Amino acid sequence: MNIQNLLQMGQQMQSQLSQIQETLGSKEVSASSGGGMVTAIVDGKGEVKRVTIDPTVVDPADVEMLEDLILAAVSEAQSQAKGLYEAEMRKVAGGLPFPLKLPGLP
């Protein structure tokens, strides 16, 4: 394999990565906590798009519980988005381990 082939492969991977980023931005992942009382929706990049809260869970005397439910839902949705991202990256890597671990680099 010569340098020209490597450069061409690099360009193809860069194009695929750009396409994946665009695709991930349009996908949505959701997660709930508290038996569905709080739901967080994030895009495939992990950015929070919406949070919905069942009005019955809003208790001014127990704001801490609501905060915990929101945090749990957002964290789980972002974790799912990360999994989606990693799955897409494995497709581009073509069987190489992801994230790539190169010898001599931390």
SSE blueprint and pairings:
Blueprint: H1 3-26, E1 28-33, E2 38-43, E3 48-53, H2 63-93
Helix pairs in contact: 1-2
Description:
The protein is α+β, with helices and mostly antiparallel strands and 106 residues long. It has a domain at 28-93: Ybab, Chain: A, CATH 3.30.1310. It has two helices and three strands. The chain has helices at residues 3-26, 63-93, and strands at 28-33, 38-43, 48-53. It has a three-stranded antiparallel sheet. Helix 1 (3-26) runs antiparallel to helix 2 (63-93). The longest helix is centred in the last third of the chain and has 31 residues, at 63-93. 13% of the residues are buried. The mean pLDDT is 85.
By secondary-structure content and strand pairing, the structural class works out as alpha+beta
- Count of DSSP H/I helices: 2
Distance between the termini: 27 Å
Question: What do we call the CATH topology of the domain at 28-93?
Answer: Ybab, Chain: A
Task: Output mean pLDDT.
Answer: 85
Order of helices and strands: HEEEH
Low-confidence stretches: none
CATH class call of the domain at 28-93: Alpha Beta
Strand tally is 3
